[in-house]
Every structure is written in structure tokens, then in C-alpha cells.
Amino acid sequence: MANNNQIHDKDFEPLYKKIFETLVSSPAVKKELLNLLHKGKLSPQTIFVMMAKTDDMLQAIMQKGEEAGLKGNVSPKIPETRLLTEKKEQYIDGRKLSSCEVEFEEYCTNRFNEEEWLKQTGISFP
């Protein structure tokens, strides 16, 4: 299994983005997210918990695949899906982002270095 240091590798960012886009573009997921948003139960903390649970499920799936491989079975196949070529609408705090805002978010996601920013601002955590 891949070590945990690979989780922050830039090579995985396109995969993370595609998974996120696929999840958020699902009508069922959109409906549930909006429902939670209207109830006031959607926050950065709840999203973090959901991401952690998703990571746990992914680890379990990968472990089952490795165990099946050790037994001589074929690893479970990921069903083929059509790639999304069109850009989907993006929302932050329930508000649709403009194309400039989407580009800014993508730029920050790809090029913002948190560690360097913390050093430059003099922020340190004990």
C-alpha cells in the first residue's frame, strides 16, 4: 500500500479534483449538501469529517483489493465512466462562483504553499 506521505503529492491533485467534481456534480449529493446548508449544519469541520470518512473507506477498498490480489483473485475493477469535459458550476458557501473566482480558486489550490506562507507571516504552531 502507498505510504501516507504520498497523499500530499502533487501528482494526486488531479485525481482528488476529479473525484470532488464528480461527487459535487451528482444531483443526489447536491440535494443533500443544500439540505445541510439550509439547516445550518454544513461547516468546514463537517466537510473535514466527511473527507476523513471518505479516506477511511478508500483505504478499506484498497486493502480489500490487495488482499484479493494476495489470494490470486483479480482486484476489483473501477467501472469506466465518461470523463467530464465541460466545467461544472462551483459554489462556496451556497453562492455560485464567477469564472474569475473559479480561476482564482484553482490558482490558489495549485500554487499556494502553506508552509512558506506560515514562515513569511511568522506564524508557528507549538
Description of the molecule:
The structure is a single chain. By secondary structure, this protein is mainly alpha-helical. It folds into two domains: 4-80, no CATH class; 89-126, no CATH class. Helices cover 59% and strands 3% of the residues. It has helices at 13-25, 27-39, 44-70, 99-111, 114-121, and strands at residues 91-92, 95-96. The chain has a two-stranded antiparallel sheet with strand order 1-2. A hairpin with a 2-residue loop joins strand 1 (91-92) and strand 2. The chain is globular and about 50 Å long. Residues 80-86 have low confidence and may be disordered.
Short synopsis of the structure:
The protein has 126 residues and is mainly alpha-helical. It is built from 5 helices and 2 strands; from the N terminus they run αααββαα. A hairpin with a 2-residue loop joins strand 1 and strand 2.
Please identify the oligomeric state: single chain
Query: Can you count the beta strands?
Result: 2
Largest sheet: 2 strands, antiparallel
Helix tally equals 5
Entry keywords:
single chain, 126 residues, mainly alpha, two-stranded antiparallel sheet, 5 helices, 2 strands
Layout of strands and helices, then pairs:
Layout: H1 13-25, H2 27-39, H3 44-70, E1 91-92, E2 95-96, H4 99-111, H5 114-121
Antiparallel strand pairs: 1-2
